[in-house]
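Quick log. Single chain, no ligands specified.
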Amino acid sequence: MNENRTATDYREKTPNGTFTLKEVKGWMLWAVGLFLLASIFGTLMRLYYLVEIPLLEYVHILHAHSHVAQLGWGFLLVTLALIFLGLSSTPHKRHYKAVLVLNVVACFGMAAAFLIQSYGPVSIAFSMFHLFIAYYFAYWFWKDIQRVKSSVARVFYKGSVIWLVLSTLGLWVLPIVLQTAGKTSIFYYTSIQWFLHLQFNGWFTYAVLGLLVSFLSKRGVELHIPNSVWACLHLSVLLTYALSVSWGNPHPLLFYLNGLGVILQLFAIGYILLKLKIGRKYFQQGSVLAVSLIGLGVFSLILKILMQSALVLPDVAQISHTIRNFVIGFIHLTMLGSISLTTVGLLIREGALPEGVLAHIGWFGVIIAFLSTELLLFIQGLWVWLTWGYFSIYYELLFSVTAIFPLSIFLVFLGFVTKKPYYITKSKFNV
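-> predicted structure:
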């Protein structure tokens, strides 16, 4: 692959059925815009602890932030990567373009509705609209991956789509739960946790692992994963859901099931990461920015698995969901670290994102903000665990480093709209 092709060369030589520079740039521009919006909501949440914010309630901002971050930024980022990096071509471009347009509408609708009414008829309607968009994407992407040759990456892609669809079952049972058990019941909570758990540990994680495998496959490094490892990986996703159920019903059996799940997960993903290590030299090539993002993203995945492995101990498992700082830190470690940074790094490495000065400053700013907020959240969590209370100026510090996110993401956004040309290459993943 010639990595010195210009944007003009790419547009002129792009085969029918693949995405052009303009299309990739437009898709990612909307994704980064939603990332910026989510980061603004997140910064407002930190500011809420310092000053009174008129007309806006904290829980409304929280719901707007979480939905735009996961269903907006996360969904568009990963779907773009799967389409552009995972497929050599597709006859269904118009359907994927519809996914982009409709999901952007759904996300802005969710953002406005949640700010005004939190969970209500309008916000729920836009959330359900996103589910249909996810099904729409899953259907066409599933058809596309049937056309490519069998490989480890294709198994990951299939798994990600399956978990995406299965995760939504938790939301469809909510109306029944509300009518029969009520919003304060354990069934309401576990239904939402089903969705979140399968999204983070199934849909997103499988997609990122598939992209990493595809990255090496493109460079001639083919991996083999035994059926026993696949079985452990799939089973671990289901068994570790027991921890979410234990939050409302701390039955010993649930902790044992979660313990078995984290052991299987440690074995399976540990095996996969060791296999990926074979192609480490390829991940270390490219710009400093791309290498830094991929490296920190994979490190975040490793740290996530190690943290989950510690939950094999029931006492640690209980602590994990009673200290809010740990919960928030772990969610950000997964969504921002292992998912976002890894995927962005791969897209940059494959020439799908701009690498100008503004983009460099912006993405490194995101890295600084991510590391700083994670450090503060986990240190404060340890203080709470040790019953030392909250350390001085914690909220001031947390707000200050969180504010780096929107400032940095805005620079990334400007990196898209500047007229300075940048290079892009066509991915040729043979999956």
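Residues 23-148 form one domain.
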